[in-house]
């Protein structure tokens, strides 16, 4: 038995190749394995849409995966933080808290999407705090679905404009002191996260950090962390290996 952690697939009907790649990745899992999807599973999520082929496809393949004896868990990301417990049941996965300690490996490790590590991005952190308010969410879901989609598309486009060479790492990057505080508060020295789209394994960046495994986003490559009783393994392969 092993646990696998993935993040930042950004699935949508516009990218059928990635949907197929995710299905092929699931086929590689074995009975009693566990899969943790650590946020930004969807390109964006503003509610269940019975006309969305991507949502229906995910529901179907995760249902088949569960029937094979594989547990599937989900953490919110900045693109799909509106997924509710009821939505999770629809997709056939179990919601995990935003900050989760995994204990199936040789020592506890902290798993989170990673947006909370970028604490210098005050504008986003304020937005995140506001969207957690129950009354705000109720008002948002009172809007017609097509309007919710337009709002999400605008937020996504604004975010994408900040990517690339013009993105200031001092604002939008990981803050070491924040990383250290999360590790200390959760009594962990190992962390797995996504969000930054910067694949790599890092060591001893802060006093309490032993290892930091940063997952890459899925595109030309797919990445994951495998956890078993022997250790933690950060791996990356071409997506073409899954779909060809």
How would you portray this structure in words?
The chain is an alpha/beta fold. The chain has one domain (3-243): Metallo-dependent phosphatases (Purple Acid Phosphatase, chain A, domain 2, 4-Layer Sandwich), CATH 3.60.21. The chain has helices at 16-28, 53-67, 85-91, 122-131, 134-141, 145-161, 169-172, 176-185, 240-243, and strands at 3-6, 34-38, 71-75, 94-95, 100-102, 109-112, 190-193, 200-203, 211-214, 221-228, 231-238. The protein has a six-stranded mixed beta sheet with strand order 4-3-2-1-10-11. A five-stranded mixed beta sheet has the order 5-6-7-9-8, with no helix packed on it. The longest helix is centred in the middle third of the chain and has 17 residues, at 145-161. The chain is globular, with a radius of gyration of 17 Å. The two termini are 27 Å apart. 30% of the residues are buried. The mean pLDDT is 93.
